[in-house]
Design goal:
single chain, 988 residues, alpha+beta, Aldehyde Oxidoreductase, domain 4, Alpha-D-Glucose-1,6-Bisphosphate, Chain A, domain 4, seven-stranded mixed beta sheet, seven-stranded antiparallel beta sheet, 27% helix, 28% strand, globular, disordered C terminus
């Protein structure tokens, strides 16, 4: 049934958001808005252009001598002032925030430049010369397990860092006796949420106290505070961590800022002044954190009617180059929920964690859920297809039945409340499922590709800290000591004028903390919501907090708001005793309403709330016996249902569980492969709804991000580990034009485990929507195996089949560049007024080469056929300084020569060769012809085909054309330099 709030209650009403006035008028206070101390320095990071290489040398003298530079730090200096970061599994491996002897992913920090301002720091970073010896890379998790795979961490002896097997019930017997075994293989790709605001850190060091004071837009969980303090070698009370009042989104991503907190803290210590670093967008895409990619084999033991008796999971988790805390959280967060919304009693699980040459992973909205439900709900559709059943009937047949709650799953989760069949039935009826079925029939009758997708998920919230210890064996857990539970903190304070302030250790990223908590407290104390002020920034040196503090796993409404209600009730109970004495009535007669405290049977007998609330300040001697004070009340709330994993590895990995049932209609364009969401319906049971408008906002936000995951977003890597989606022109994010209007429905079953009856709602659609859309696409196209994102090109290739071979003779394929770099080719010719001998002599002249090499600052002649140069080039938003090696070979004077070159810099690397031929075109005239091949990798390659291919062709072609122009006295084709400047952003 739906719970509606009484008219005299604030909770349950969509009151205007307190936060919006400042945000909509540009008065938000984000990390880059906060004032810094006079003398604050700024940092720029030199990052690896290679996915895997040893560092043979780092030359920093030029950078240290550059104007405004205070310090340049490499891995050696960082290691001298810090320790390896804690790794979440027992393994012989270290994890540093900066590369030391080896780089393991594109974008890994190699050096840190500290200067008077960011501009000077960036300029000096270009002067840091790093010499690499490139190693083979591995980016595919299955390939990383091969015996001959490149090993990222030699001390580990391989790339498999952890493996565990689990068995619940009797899955072997269930599979042996099943009518059918149906299984699928799925690969969930890497993607990431992309907040408007990137990472930011301001760090300061106090040598007198040996203490650090850091402000960062860190989301939490604050268990990472211990990781930071240990890495810096100080006790927790010497590592003060503060957050700004506002955050420009996080979605889990900003928990990954903590390695940079360590780097900037060390930089502040070495420089002797505060250090500030704000991440740019290119850095964020390439080197912050992403969700894990996962390869899954899932099988079901199924009866003829579609009833599932057992599941068998085999999950291979790719956590990138380092297993950074809190990983492997993404793999184990859903451990209690591996049966989803279904009553399945037998489960077998194999979990493996592998390292690859990709960015280390972290929390991402819905972490763990999208990977699990994409496999499980694709399997549900496959079962229906192979058994010839209606997919909706298969879902209904397997749901946890009504009346079974609280329901204990096979793997240990305690599903708190719900009526899944009733919620599904309401979605089918109110969402117009019958109409959608008719629409599919009509569309298909017209010859159009139209499908319906379904998805049914349980959304966990309020994570049990102990779930991650399931990665350890029971013996290892006993040795390490118990870890379990969740804790939320809230403090309510009353000042001498009776004004109420709420303080929580939860960092908001759009959840409306200040509005919702004011509603909760106003209800308990009988106040108007405008009378309650809420503070939601965090200061570990000032606030009440615990390692579970933070804003993650949809814990705000059930845990943080719940703890706030408990604190409000405790202080109200004390105020009730004070008011009873002032009103000369019994305590059960005291009523709080509309800013007054009155006698329930005689409303005219009242005093103002402020008078009662301030009594502990002005007249503490008048407080009745048993009331110590009414000034401040702090609550630490811990739910008893969250116990540690038992010896059978069963764990209630989250406190409360919402229910979501989605269905959608999707049409696929036969010619282009483009998917269009025609209708999307999402039903949510998130317990008691505290603020309907904000719940709708959370659902819409999660849905929009999930549409991106389903149809657009993917972190793409070349075989050599080069990152290929490093700009928003290549990592596509849906806009309002691509996100349809979802139909949002609700079914409320309040949780018996949370103070307010609320459950989480912010992550659910990130779990349900990608697979719902995929199931619709599969239904429309008949394709069995689908890989996200379902881009038009990916679907069109599958729909159109093999392309008809051309009758024209095929050109011989050129050899691909080494290491999977982006391949570039080109050719051209120009006629100039100079003899072949003149042009030939110019090829051996450093001054000529400096004049014709685009962006060259100077050319050094090493030998007659070997030159070095410093070059500055930019491609779109990427501009950097490179070191170039140029060699001449196969000399046939004055007829032909091969020109080979290699460039390397902080933004990437490239290598290639071109053949130049000189032929007479008449007296004193020569035709200069050229052809070339090149490969480009690293960050410069990640800007993608929209910019790089055309711009690089111009750069390479411009060299040869400029050579011709120089030889001919400047008679090159008009507009080439103008075109080059336009494409590359070069200064005149």
């Amino acid at each position: 049934m739906t719970v509606n709030p009484p008219a005299d209650r604030w909770v349950g009403r969509s009151v205007p958001r307190v936060e919006d006035a400042a945000l909509l008028t540009g008065r938000g206070r984000y990390i880059d808005d906060l004032a810094t101390r006079v003398g604050t320095l700024h940092a720029a990071i030199v990052r690896s252009p290679h996915a895997h290489a040893t560092i043979s040398a780092i030359e920093v003298d030029k950078a240290r001598a550059a104007r405004g530079v205070v310090a340049v730090l490499t891995g050696a200096e960082i290691a001298a002032h810090s320790r390896s970061m804690t790794v979440g599994v027992k393994a012989d491996v270290e994890c540093w925030p900066i590369a030391r002897d080896r780089v393991r992913y594109v974008g890994e920090p190699v050096a840190l430049v500290i200067a008077e301002d960011r501009y000077l720091a960036e300029d000096a970073a270009d002067l840091v010369a790093v010499s690499y010896e490139i190693l083979p890379a591995v980016v595919d998790p299955m390939a990383a397990l091969a015996e001959d795979a490149p090993i990222l961490h030699p001390s580990l002896g391989g790339n498999l860092i952890n493996e565990r097997r689990f068995s619940y019930g009797d899955p072997d017997a269930a599979f042996a006796g099943a009518a059918r075994t149906i299984g699928i293989d799925v690969a969930y790709p890497r993607n990431s949420c992309t907040p408007i605001e990137t990472y930011g850190v301001v760090a300061e060091y106090d040598p007198g106290e040996d203490a650090y004071d850091v402000t960062a837009n860190f989301q939490g969980p604050f268990s990472i505070h211990a990781v930071i303090a240990r890495a810096l070698g100080v006790p927790g009370n010497r590592m003060r961590l503060r957050t700004p009042p506002d955050s420009g989104g996080s979605f889990g991503i900003k928990q990954g800022v903590f390695p940079y907190i360590i780097l900037m803290a060390v930089a502040a210590k070495v420089a002797g002044r505060p250090v500030k670093w704000i991440e740019d967008r290119l850095e964020h895409l390439a080197a912050s954190v992403s969700a894990t990619n996962r390869a899954t084999r899932i099988e079901a033991a199924v009866e003829a009617d579609g009833k599932i008796t057992a599941l068998r999971w085999d999950q291979l988790e790719d956590c990138g180059a380092h297993l950074r805390a809190p990983e492997p959280a993404t793999l184990y967060r859903m451990h209690g929920n591996m049966t989803g919304a279904y009553a399945i009693e037998n489960v077998a699980i194999r979990n493996r964690i592998v390292l690859t040459n990709k960015t280390p992973t972290g929390l991402n909205r819905g972490f763990g859920g999208p990977q699990v439900y994409f496999a499980l709900e694709r399997l549900m559709q496959r079962i229906a297809l192979e058994l010839g059943l209606d997919p909706l009937d298969v879902i209904r047949r397997n749901l946890v039945p009504r009346g079974a709650f609280p329901y204990r799953t096979a793997t240990g989760a305690l599903l708190d409340s719900g009526d899944y069949p009733a919620a599904l039935a309401r979605a089918v009826e109110d969402g117009g499922f019958a109409d959608l079925l008719r629409r599919r029939e009509e569309m298909r009758a017209e010859g159009r590709l139209y499908g319906i997708g379904l998805a049914c998920v349980v959304e966990p919230s309020v994570s049990n800290m102990g779930y991650i210890t399931a990665v350890l064996t029971p013996g290892e857990r006993r040795k390490a000591g118990p870890k379990n539970g969740a804790q939320a903190t809230a403090t309510i304070a009353i000042d001498p004028l009776g004004a109420v302030t709420v303080k929580v250790a939860s960092v908001p990223q759009g959840q409306g903390h200040r509005t919702v908590l004011a509603q909760v407290v106003a209800d308990e104390l009988g106040l108007d919501v405008t009378a309650v002020q809420v503070l939601a920034d965090v200061d570990t040196a000032r606030d009440a907090w615990s390692i579970a503090s933070g804003n993650y796993a949809s814990r705000f409404a059930p845990a943080v708001a719940g703890a706030t209600q408990i604190a409000a009730r405790r202080i109200r109970d004390k105020l009730t005793a004070v008011a009873a004495a002032q009103l000369n009535v019994t305590q059960d007669e005291v009523m709080f309403a509309w800013g007054r405290v009155s006698a329930r049977s005689n409303p005219d007998n009242f005093v103002s709330f402020a008078r009662v609330a301030a009594a502990a300040h002005w007249a503490p001697g008048t407080l009745p016996d048993g009331v110590d004070q009414t000034i401040r009340e702090t609550v630490f709330w811990t739910p008893e249902q969250l116990t540690a994993p038992d010896d059978a590895d069963a764990v209630n990995s989250s406190l409360c569980h919402g229910f979501i049932f989605d269905f959608c209609g999707v049409e696929i364009d036969r010619d282009t492969g483009a998917a269009r969401i025609d209708r999307y319906v999402t039903m949510h049971d998130c317990g008691r709804i505290l603020h309907p408008a904000m719940v709708e906002g959370q659902v819409r936000g999660g849905f929009a991000q999930a549409v991106g995951a389903a149809l657009y977003e993917e972190y793409a890597y070349a075989p050599d580990g080069s990152f290929l989606s490093g700009t928003l022109a290549d990592y596509l994010i849906p806009t309002v034009m691509e996100v349809p209007e979802p139909v949002i429905l609700h079914y409320e079953s309040p949780s018996p485990f949370t103070p307010l009856g609320a459950k989480g709602v912010g992550e659910g659609n990130c779990m349900s929507t990608p697979v719902c859309i995929a199931n619709a696409v599969a239904d429309a196209t008949g394709l069995a195996d689908l890989v996200l994102p379902l881009t038009p090109s990916r679907l069109a290739d599958r729909l159109q089949g093999e392309e008809t071979p051309s009758k024209a003779p095929a050109k011989p394929a050129a050899a691909a560049p080494a290491g999977g770099q982006r391949r570039l080719t080109g050719e051209g010719r120009a006629e100039v007024a100079a003899s072949r001998e003149t042009i030939w002599s110019m090829l051996l002249d450093p001054k000529t080469l400096e004049a014709v090499i685009p962006g060259a600052h100077g050319v050094e002649k090493v030998s007659d056929t070997h030159f070095r140069a410093d070059v500055t080039l930019g491609v779109g938003p990427v501009k950097g300084r490179y070191r170039a090696e140029i060699r001449l070979s196969d000399l046939d004077a004055p007829n032909a020569v091969t020109l080979s070159g290699r460039t390397e810099g902080a933004l990437g690397f490239g290598e290639g060769s071109g053949r130049i031929t000189l032929s007479e075109a008449g007296p004193g005239r020569t035709v200069v012809a050229y052809s070339y091949e090149a490969g480009i990798g690293g960050k410069v390659a990640s800007v993608g085909g929209r910019l790089l291919d055309g711009a690089a062709r111009v750069v390479i072609g411009q060299f040869f054309r400029s050579l011709a122009a120089h030889a001919g006295g400047g008679s090159a084709k008009a507009g080439l330099f103008a075109r080059l400047r336009s494409l590359l952003g070069r200064r005149k």
